[in-house]
Specification:
This protein is an alpha+beta fold and 982 residues long. The chain has 7 domains: 173 residues, Immunoglobulin-like, CATH 2.60.40.1730; 92 residues, Neutral Protease, domain 2 (Orthogonal Bundle); 129 residues, Neutral Protease, domain 2 (Orthogonal Bundle); 79 residues, Immunoglobulin-like (Sandwich), CATH 2.60.40; 131 residues, Chitobiase, domain 2 (2-Layer Sandwich); 243 residues, 3-Layer(aba) Sandwich (Rossmann fold), CATH 3.40.50; 79 residues, PDZ domain (Pdz3 Domain, Roll), CATH 2.30.42. It has 28 helices and 50 strands. Strands 1, 2, 4, 5, 8, 12, 14, 15 and 16 form a 9-stranded mixed sheet that branches. It has a 7-stranded mixed sheet with strand order 32-31-33-35-34-36-37. A 6-stranded parallel sheet has the order 41-40-42-39-43-44, with helices on both faces. It is elongated.
Amino acid sequence: MSLACSVHAAWNIPRHDLSVSFDITENRIKGVSHITLRGDREIKIYTHNLTVTSMTLNGLPLKGETKGHVISTDEKGNLEITYEGVFRNGHREENLENAGVISGNVISYKGIYLTGGWYPSIEGRAEYHLKALLPKGYSAISEADAITEKDTHRGKEYSFDFPYPVHEINFIAGKYKEVKETFQGIDIYGYFFPEDVSLAKTYLQHTKKYIGKYQQLLTPYPYKRFSVVENFLPTGYSMPTFTLLGQEVVKLPFIVKTSLGHEILHQWFGNYVYVDYDRGNWVEGLTTLLSDNLYEEEEGTGWKYRKKILTDYESYVNPGKEFPLNAFTGRVDFASRAIGYGKGAMVFHMLKDFVGEPAFYEALKELIGERALHDASWEDIRTVFEKISGTDLAWFFEQWLDRKGVVSIAVEDPRVIFSNGANTISVVIVQNGQPYRFRLPVTICSDSGTSTEILNIENQREKFEIPSHGNPTEIIFDENYDIMRNLSEAEYPPVISRLLGDEKRLIVVPEKDRERYDSLIAVFQREGFRLKEERELKDEDITSSSLLILGFDGPVVKRLFGSLQRPQKGFTLMVRENPLNSHKVVALVYGDSRQEVDPVSGKIHHYGKYSFLRFSKGRNIEKRTDESNRGIQARLYKPVTLIQTKKLTDLKDVAGPIADTPIIYVGERHTSYSDHKTQLEVIMNIHKQGRKFAIAMEMFQKPFQKVIDKYISGTIDEREFLRDTEYFKRWKFDYNLYREIIEFAKAKKIPVIALNLRSEIIDTVSKGGIDALTDEEKKELPEDMDMTDKDYRNRLKEIFTQHEQSGSRNFWNFVQSQILWDETMAHTVARYLKEHPGSQIVVLAGAGHIVYETGIPKRVYRLNKKDYVTLIPDSASLDDSVGTYVFFAAPQSPPHSLKLGIVLTGKDRVKIEKISPGSVAEVTGLKEGDILVSMDGWKIEDIADVRIFMVGKKEGETVKIKILRKRFLFGEKEHEFTATLR
């Protein structure tokens, strides 16, 4: 006797004998239900939308209460209901977020699919016995330990013997080829359509493997028969004694390695131990752990599967769709699946970790023994696990079942200290939100190997000191994804699920070739994506939404990612992190024709874990997920860099290799005269070798290029040059620091190129983003920009947070302004070299724009692929990626800048606000409140005019200064003074 029979023997439940026949032409079912009522409780019987033609109890009309489609009675006896129903192809279109779930019954020539509401059903469990009459040519499957067939003059009659109480039964029929094998006394069947019967052998082999696996892990297979049934509808279901897989599904090669085992495991959990849905569906989480996760674990990649669970949860479960695990009853979309299947699996995984693997499987066997053919709840599971483990688990189930959300932790201040005679790792773990109690695995990497520790976490903020063997170099938290938690930013890959699960999602429609994407647009619009024309897209749209951009060469793509190479023929989808908001993603789509786009439009939802997809004629030919950190990683050791001073190289020794390079970047600290002297030396060395080159300078802004050209050619003087380039308004650093470079260029007729964007544009973007610019200002921006460099962004983050007013500014606006700055300089360099073939260029800019090559150099390389070298001043941190060369220039005092010793205010009229004691101004007789008119005939209209006049002045020179001085009652009077400079 099977375990099921022994458990069921004493039950006192209704018996339902059901006979049905079918008219395929009319899509009709006719049936007679004979229900034996025990009379010990009120019974409810649901007739759904069926047409009841007669209803008697013990041969007389039923006296029980009937309301709508519900019959209620507490009488004993034999209830007979004659009914019929029509089920055409009325099932709803498949929900892309809930693949494999079909609503509605079907009776058709293709087959029969009846899974609910096709007979008068009894509330609760009942014992069902089914007979079905079918036209010849059809084979039938329902819950059964044995199926008998009998030919009649009306067709073929099937009888299904299933002497166990169930909540409902299902009926499937089709024109199948039947294949049978036997495994350990269990009959294994395959029902496949003739064109797919070649798949049967593989499916039956894997079925035997899975049944054998779970008999070893759990208990003997509970029934006498199991069937794999192909369905003409796209389903993925498991019923007692069979699984129902859609025709397209069974052809996928990975199904036998994943989904088949999952559905077979349901024979124990869900189809033998039932789910108490009123108190939460636990079964999907448990079967996910013991199938999909277990199979990956056996391949050594269980951590990858669990990371996918966390990724899906992070992607799909936004606040509007979040609910506690004990509220899960079944999947209806990606979010509910991520909770019920994913979080549920992780809860069982953590439970296994807490009680130990032997106790875990012992408890499951106990659960099967106690709740076979009964509903089981989370409370029943807790009771069994407490019994087997001898541990109070109320806290565990309360925090994981009753609460929304998951663990969210941050790692603070990881460091190595020497304590109690050994290296010790000190670290603080902070929980965001209501704290959880859990065991946090920690991997410690040191020069003597790798070790693992467990931190028991309970409180909001806890400090730990962990002794370490050897010198620890890195510490990794939850490397194998054993905790249901939020992923850190570095762990969270840009994948399709992040696009699908975002609350704010836009389709960016191109101005041309839109029609080829019509089917894709329609699919994603049905899923809640909003349509936005590319020309209408604002900065706010990009920063607040995840984007699906159609086409690889539109202005939005160029703005965010630079110029991307058009993909190969076919259909390509690539997901990148949104450069303006790391919590969002941008998906780029390219299809070279409607014939490539249409077959893929409805498939993308099935590839949520991938970052890149490529299809050809609807068939996937490439897929991958971008790399991201494994676990929360914290570096504990950064090497101390040494320089062997006896091996230092003189700049002259590398002058040749430097001069041979098309682009030479020489960084500077703006106020360091020695850095500028190094820049001049590089320039002079290149000129000495007879090279054709230009000097590109960050200090000058592009609108003033013609002024620079005039000065270099000698058509204007220095004062006009400084005034007309607005040098002192726009750069402000002492011009004497740069003067020698400019004068050398002028003397040798070397072109000087203004690199920079207008400061007004950078300031505007820094405050309000690119949307704050006028249409005219936007025309000055580079056509394409790359905003994706994370290292660059992280360095900007450090600068931003150190700024006194960073709290009142938007970081992403700041990032955009800096990228605009660097991209403009990069485009200027690339354009000059393109327009001047055979020429070289020396780029002079702040070290921050050159260090690690991420500011200007890599952007220029993206544009023209020309080689370059970088020379970085020694203030930068030293490592092997900081630059090609780091120069150490001897400190030099800058040329003495002569000053009058005055503080000035005003624009149209420049007034002396303050005079320093003992200064030239005081000795000359100037007074506070004087209005400056001219100096040696140089008209003073702006404070910058004074600074311009003083450039190049030498000690001992005399200057005639005209001022206006206010008189008592008589207005202003002009005075002239002669000042001797010192």
